[in-house]
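Researcher: Quick test of sequence recovery. Tokens follow.
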């Protein structure tokens, strides 16, 4: 009797056990394959979501200290910059809290960007917010839909209080630090509510949750009543070529 005949008769004799093992292997393979496919799909979706939330942003220089905003222009003037990038945009990037002026509903851990008009070139999917009255531009704030929902804002024109931590040379938790409240407030009117996509989801934290995001003219944050950092920023955004 040949070896193949022995193997065949063994399989035939134990066919019930062999079928059970084969079905078990098939089920395990299907489960593992499905998990890998779902995991890969989820990673791809999250990656796509994160990339869209950054727009054309390639790099961000962010520091704890404020520095002169002319540095952004100097970075853009470096030899070879134009070969890989399109712009170096000066911004102020902070974590703030915002309170509705009437209902006093509070939203904390709000990613707040102090910007100039050229900031909106980073996301072609967003139409640059404009104001009809230039006098109102100094007191405007743009929020994403998530933040509007958190504050209970139903429409533009409502007022909020932006609370910003003031920078200090000495940490508050040090023996020489000041223990009093080191924040400043500014009353601002909501002029636009952006849908929760693109730069309206901007965040440096990796999370599936939609962040709370606000956009404020840079000069408001630099003013003496808020940060008192005239002509200074704490971040430079580098826009890459697409």
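Model:
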């Amino acid at each position: 009797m040949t070896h193949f005949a022995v193997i065949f008769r063994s399989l035939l004799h134990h066919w019930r056990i062999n079928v059970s093992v084969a079905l078990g292997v098939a089920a395990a393979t299907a489960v593992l394959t499905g998990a890998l496919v779902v995991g890969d799909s989820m990673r791809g979706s999250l990656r796509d979501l994160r990339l869209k939330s950054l727009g054309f942003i390639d790099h961000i220089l962010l520091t704890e200290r404020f520095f002169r905003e002319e540095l952004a222009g100097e970075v853009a003037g470096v030899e070879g910059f134009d070969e890989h990038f399109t712009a170096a945009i000066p911004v102020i990037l902070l974590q703030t809290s915002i309170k509705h002026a009437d209902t006093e509903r509070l939203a904390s851990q709000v990613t707040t960007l102090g910007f100039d008009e050229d900031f909106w070139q980073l996301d072609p999917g967003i139409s640059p917010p404009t104001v009809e009255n230039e006098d109102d531009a100094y007191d405007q704030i743009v929020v994403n839909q998530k933040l509007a929902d958190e504050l209970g804002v139903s429409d533009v024109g409502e007022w909020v209080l932006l609370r910003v931590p003031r920078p200090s040379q000495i940490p508050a938790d040090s023996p020489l630090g000041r223990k009093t409240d080191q924040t400043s407030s500014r009353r601002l009117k909501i002029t636009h509510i952006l849908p929760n996509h693109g730069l309206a989801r901007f965040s440096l934290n990796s999370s599936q949750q939609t962040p709370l995001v606000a956009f404020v003219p840079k000069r408001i944050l630099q003013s003496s009543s808020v940060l008192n950092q005239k002509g200074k920023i704490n971040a430079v955004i580098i826009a890459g070529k697409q």
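Helices lie at 3-13, 15-54, 70-76, 81-84, 145-151, 218-222.
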